[in-house]
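I had to read the description of the data format several times before I understood it. For illustration, here is how one protein appears when written out as sequence plus structure tokens:
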Amino acid sequence: MATAQQWIQAARPRTLPAAVAPVLVGTGAGIDLGGFSWLRGGLALIVSLALQVGVNYSNDYSDGVRGTDEVRVGPTRLVGAGLAAPGAVKRAAFACFGVAGLAGLALAAMTSWWLVPIGLACVAAAWFYTGGPRPYGYAGLGEVFVFVFFGLVAVLGTTYVQAGAITVWAVIASIGIGLLACALLMANNLRDVHTDVDAGKRTLAVLLGEPLSRKVFALMIAGAFVAVLALSPSHPWCLLGLLAVPLAVPPTRSVLRGARGRDLITVLGQTGRLEFVYAVLVGAGLALEAWT
């Protein structure tokens, strides 16, 4: 039987900044538009965190029953290591999706019922990443969906529930967050690239190969800061985001110098920290435009 600590590890705490970051930036964009609500922001955060933990348990279940996790470098998986019954992990994933759904329904009731189909699309994307007969995460599309759902949808959805509108500046900010979320996934897939090849899991890192994937990781990081520069003419306070550049150096250097295996676990933590600090700074920059 898995311990409480093992269940927590299976929730992949290192990935949670990817759930918090878009809510922070979306809230900043909402404040820039003149709208803010602690309740709506809190519900948006619950949706994002529940979906992130849900997709992590879903991946644990789906990869485990496929045998993808039999040989693994990263954190222990519950199903792959035989620590928990597949059904229990699957139920945990759907319990998280249920929490996200309830919080999402509350937000829809407060704002617009158009959020319901968007929420259903988010849950479907979370499950079919590694679940179902044709998981898109096994076809090199993981980064595309992460960019869309943990970048565009999460930031712009938060902006909308806060202010009832979306601006081009919120879109640019969401691109920066989406690129950092993709970098987090790329680091994860680089770590597992050799075992994924053996298991027949064709992630983007597998399709591109290690040398090109490492360059793409660096371009994703750089692209996030290009987004900051794109925001600066109209929102100069967003230049605060450049203060996160020093945090981008260690993971980028490690990846470009060929870090492998467990060294990439450190890169994951560094990239998650970068995304969180970047989100705090850019979100604050957007909010300050409304107060100055």
